[in-house]
């Protein structure tokens, strides 16, 4: 996973060399959607390079590759794929090892619906985590916190119904959950500490987002 903790490229930068024979991930170190792709690559032991990009000062060459300007995106030779769930499905199909999606079409559909429901918990999380504290009223904080918890309870209830450690049974699959996630080798390899996340949040709230908190320590 070369480059995973390197500095983020910004507007005006030159695109680094890309190995046409190797998968490259365009990433932002603190992005939960990009984490999906990185974790799947790690779990399936796929060799890859990482190019970290600033999302507030996006490099021109990155926008040429992904007009949406979002991460993750992956590149293999002249093939470029973006959107997190599309990239992980592609990786799961193309690369060997244990599949991370159920073989049963109905179970696969159920899991995908759960993933979509989990995604609904992200907007209130972002409003709470990245909103200016002075601009959030106590009523809003209570409302958004409850909204986020309600969305997460859906996953908790589904896991209880399945009566397994993970949503996919006894091993990690595309749908995952908190405590056991932290014990997984892929999660351990890519995990961002609470302290680093809080420092990233502080810099973002101050209007000078520091994407290189981890890279600066290397």
UniProtKB/TrEMBL annotation:
Coiled coil: none annotated. InterPro entries: Glutathione-S-Trfase_C_sf (IPR036282), Glutathione_S-Trfase (IPR040079), Glutathione_S-Trfase_N (IPR004045), GST_omega (IPR005442), GST_Omega/HSP26 (IPR050983), Thioredoxin-like_sf (IPR036249). GO terms for cellular component: cytoplasm. GO terms for biological process: glutathione metabolic process. GO terms for molecular function: glutathione dehydrogenase (ascorbate) activity; glutathione transferase activity. Residues 21-99 form the GST N-terminal domain. Pfam families: GST_N_3 (PF13417). Belongs to the GST superfamily. Omega family. This is GST N-terminal domain-containing protein. It comes from Tigriopus californicus (Marine copepod).
């Amino acid at each position: 996973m070369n480059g995973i903790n390197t500095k983020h490229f910004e507007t005006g930068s030159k695109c680094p060399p890309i190995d046409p024979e190797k998968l490259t991930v365009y990433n932002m170190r603190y992005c939960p959607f990009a984490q999906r792709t990185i974790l799947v690559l790690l779990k399936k032991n796929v060799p890859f390079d990482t190019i970290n990009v600033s999302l507030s000062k996006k490099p021109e060459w990155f926008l040429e590759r992904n007009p949406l300007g979002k991460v993750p995106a992956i590149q293999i030779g002249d093939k470029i794929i973006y959107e997190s769930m599309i990239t992980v499905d592609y990786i799961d199909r193309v690369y060997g090892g244990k599949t991370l999606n159920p073989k049963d079409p109905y179970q696969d559909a159920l899991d995908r619906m759960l993933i979509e429901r989990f995604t609904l918990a992200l907007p209130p999380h972002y409003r709470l985590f990245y909103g200016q504290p002075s601009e959030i009223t106590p009523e809003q904080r209570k409302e958004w916190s409850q909204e986020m918890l309600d969305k997460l309870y859906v996953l908790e209830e589904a896991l209880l119904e399945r009566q397994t450690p993970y949503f996919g049974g006894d091993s990690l699959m595309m749908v995952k959950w908190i405590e056991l996630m932290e014990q997984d080798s892929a999660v351990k390899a890519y995990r961002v500490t609470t302290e680093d996340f809080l420092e990233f949040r502080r810099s973002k709230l101050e209007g000078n987002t520091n994407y290189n908190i981890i890279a600066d320590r290397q």
